[in-house]
Design goal:
8 helices, globular, about 45% helix, binds iron/sulfur cluster
Length: about 170
């Protein structure tokens, strides 16, 4: 088993690291806002990728949903699905496209049970906003430019309301 798979299969340290990162980003938010989206991303993209590439095989979508997906990057799915698996998952839990690999979403489901974010697996993620590709998701999140923080996506709003037990009328 690779170090990456081991860490993702035992995601508690990754969860702590994410929560610490969120806290630090909150502290430096005024500086990021002063720099603006592009310049702040220029500074933070490299350190973010130095961490996320080896740990998550990050594809630089610029709108991270790792904590909603069991600390498993959905962009590593060959179909880049952000809301669960396709219909082609094999009976052994492997990928339709690459039968030698486990399905990313089967892994995400199993790993999410070992995080505090299990319920968020049921959340509907917004489609990828490709305008954010290549930007630092630390910045897009902190400056509230991703669909998670803008809350502008009706599907996301709906999913949030369902999670909170409210109906959609
Ligand atoms: S969801 Fe996006 S930012 Fe997060 S690890 Fe995957 S590609 Fe990278």
């Amino acid at each position: 088993m690779s170090v990456r798979a081991f860490l993702q299969d035992h995601p508690k340290p990754l969860v702590w690291a994410w929560e610490l990162t969120l806290r630090v980003l909150g502290w430096v938010r005024p500086v990021l806002a002063q720099l603006g989206l592009e310049r702040a991303s220029w500074w933070l993209r490299t350190p973010e990728m130095l961490i996320k590439k080896p740990l998550f095989d990050c594809r630089e979508c610029g709108q991270c949903v790792l904590h909603y997906t069991g600390m498993t990057c959905p962009m590593t799915c060959p179909k880049q699905l952000r809301n669960g698996p396709c219909g082609g998952v094999r009976a052994d839990g492997h990928c339709e496209v690459y039968p030698d690999r486990p399905c990313v979403w089967v892994q995400a489901w199993e790993r999410s049970a070992r995080t505090p974010y299990r319920a968020e697996m049921m959340r509907l993620n917004a489609p990828v906003d490709w305008r954010l590709e290549g930007l630092s998701s630390w910045v897009t999140h902190t400056l509230e430019r991703d669909a998670i923080t803008t809350g502008n996506d009706p599907a996301v709003r709906y999913a949030d309301e369902v999670l909170e037990g409210r109906s959609w009328n």
